[in-house]
Amino acid sequence: MTPVPVGPLELLDIDHLLSDEERAVQQSVRRLVDDTIRPNIAQWYEVGTFPAEMALTFGKLGLLGMHLQGYGCAGMSAVAYGLACMELEAGDSGARSFASVQGSLAMVAIHRWGSEEQKQRWLPRMAEGEVIGCFGLTEPDFGSDPAGMRTRARRDGQDWVLDGTKMWITNGSIADLAVVWARTDSGIQGFLVPTDTPGFTANKITGKLSLRASVTAELVLEGVRLPADAVLPGVQSLRGPLSCLDEARFGIVFGALGAARDCLEVALDYSRSREVFNRPIGGYQLTQQKLADMTLELQKGFLLALHLGRLKDAGRLEPRQVSLGKLNNAREAIAIARECRTILGANGITLDYSVLRHANNLESVLTYEGTSEMHTLVIGQALTGLSAFT
After folding, report:
1. Strand pairing partners for 283?
2. What are the pLDDT digits (tens) for 371-382?
3. Per the residue annotation, which of 218, 332, 339, 369 is the catalytic one?
4. For the chain, which domains are there?
């Protein structure tokens, strides 16, 4: 009797580790991806865009800032948010990046460090997708070392005046509101910058070979004048933006697995139908070894992500633990995507299949929100008590 094939996340029978609510969230987001992203993603990727109107679609389902409490946000668990990220990234990393930047960077910055007036003004509309946000931290010469930022905010009477440049800003040229981090006399502070403010320019970055279905921009601020209440009052140090990055990194821990799972599902399906020497390639030992090894790493990565999610929901998750998850799951996801491409052969390089699109995207995922090198040093410092950053 021929055994019935199982999916790459079904082998360990771990579905019971999720609650009914978490499974419902996962299925809802999976349906959204199947209905709105999969039919269009090849075209978006080829053209190099992500439609801004998808914000309203995400907002209607409650995906934007879904793990935040109040202000029109869904208030879901960290695990539910992680599962949503996994399903979005199974569609494309650009979709998950959009939701991460909106909900875990821009909205978290306001929710955690903003005034009550700022929260009431911006968060409900951002949760609905009516206002798109971006997060301006990285600069052309300062990525892994944000403490060296050159963007400056100075007081001029009651106003603030900002000058500087930010780079690789997701959603930048379609955003209505930019959270911009700048150096002040009091330390690093965040500013809420409506993108129609005079002196603010967002230039779309073109020619990308990765994350093509994502809008990426350079932000230029030249004498941008803001009122006194534009500053986020809750923080005056790098703790502000770095705490937001931890939120986004957590989403990547789950999200990268979504891309890997989609690649593996495509490769499994292909291996059962593609014949070489009059038999399916999935029946050859070398192919089965590849599939088995990749499934093992995918399930290990999911168990790691789920553990970190439970820690986060219990209020016990530490940044160095997020580094463990981001380092492992981004690294294993890109390895799975590349290996799946070998199973598809020449077909694997086309947009008819998702594997090389995912592999290209994961090159960016491997780098952003902290490179693998930086997360390695975070873990090394935790183990030795010695800093190797300088």
Report:
1. none
2. 899 999 999 999
3. 369
4. 15-128 (1.10.540.10), 133-230 (2.40.110.10), 239-384 (1.20.140.10)
